[in-house]
């Protein structure tokens, strides 16, 4: 029987930090809080991550690795629309998994310059990946000609929706779009006016198959 690989202390710190940050927010949690929750000395934690920014960079690298894997996990025999829909569902799950980061992203970028630089590089990469996804929509005749007039702005709005979904949900609390799946629905509402008849048919098939949330 194979033994389960032992989790390294530095990885345990990352997992504990994510849990604490998700509960209380980045600014409310110090390294001493995390060390105390783990039952290790503050010096032990400091040995692995000397500053909060060091720890946040490590968490973000983990996030980026997971997100890159999502972009690269598209099925070759699926349509571009089906792959995009599955990606949106995963994006929303990702938001909840790293809730603190998406809620505190403005504060994080202002407080931690090295992390902010990493974020900007990632945003640039994701912009190109999003453009590639929509080029596949075009190639498969799912997008109409009207889309070409608004594509840059529409892709930007979609990116904003994904990046700030949890933040707007807390600020605009009077609205009822709080259940999981609402982010995915909102993005499709933006896109549906630009789908061709074949795009709408494929959209209907995909929604019937998957719905809007992770099974």
TrEMBL record:
<dbReference type="Pfam" id="PF13972">
    <property type="entry name" value="TetR"/>
</dbReference>
<keyword id="KW-0238">DNA-binding</keyword>
<dbReference type="InterPro" id="IPR001647">
    <property type="entry name" value="HTH_TetR"/>
</dbReference>
<dbReference type="InterPro" id="IPR025722">
    <property type="entry name" value="TetR"/>
</dbReference>
<feature type="domain" description="HTH tetR-type">
    <location>
        <begin position="7"/>
        <end position="67"/>
    </location>
</feature>
<protein>
    <submittedName>
        <fullName>DNA-binding transcriptional regulator, AcrR family</fullName>
    </submittedName>
</protein>
<dbReference type="Pfam" id="PF00440">
    <property type="entry name" value="TetR_N"/>
</dbReference>
<dbReference type="GO" id="GO:0003677">
    <property type="term" value="F:DNA binding"/>
</dbReference>
<feature type="DNA-binding region" description="H-T-H motif">
    <location>
        <begin position="30"/>
        <end position="49"/>
    </location>
</feature>
<dbReference type="InterPro" id="IPR050624">
    <property type="entry name" value="HTH-type_Tx_Regulator"/>
</dbReference>
<dbReference type="InterPro" id="IPR009057">
    <property type="entry name" value="Homeodomain-like_sf"/>
</dbReference>
């Amino acid at each position: 029987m194979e033994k389960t690989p032992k989790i390294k202390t530095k990885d345990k710190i990352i997992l504990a930090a994510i849990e604490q940050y998700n509960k209380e927010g980045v600014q409310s949690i110090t390294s001493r809080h995390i060390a105390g929750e783990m039952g290790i000395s503050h010096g032990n934690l400091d040995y692995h991550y000397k500053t909060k920014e060091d720890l946040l960079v490590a968490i973000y690298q983990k996030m980026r690795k997971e997100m890159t894997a999502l972009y690269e996990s598209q099925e070759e025999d699926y349509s571009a629309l089906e792959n995009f829909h599955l990606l949106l569902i995963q994006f929303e799950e990702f938001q909840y998994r790293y809730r603190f980061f998406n809620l505190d992203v403005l504060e994080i970028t202002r407080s931690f310059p090295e992390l902010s630089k990493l974020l900007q590089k990632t945003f640039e990469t994701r912009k190109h990946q999003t453009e590639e996804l929509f080029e596949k929509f075009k190639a498969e005749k799912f997008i109409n000609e009207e889309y070409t007039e608004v594509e840059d702005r529409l892709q930007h709005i979609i990116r904003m929706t994904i990046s700030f979904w949890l933040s707007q949900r807390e600020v605009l609390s009077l609205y009822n779009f709080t259940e999981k799946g609402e982010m995915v629905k909102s993005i499709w509402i933006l896109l549906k006016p630009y789908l061709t008849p074949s795009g709408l048919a494929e959209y209907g098939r995909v929604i019937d198959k998957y719905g809007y949330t992770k099974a």
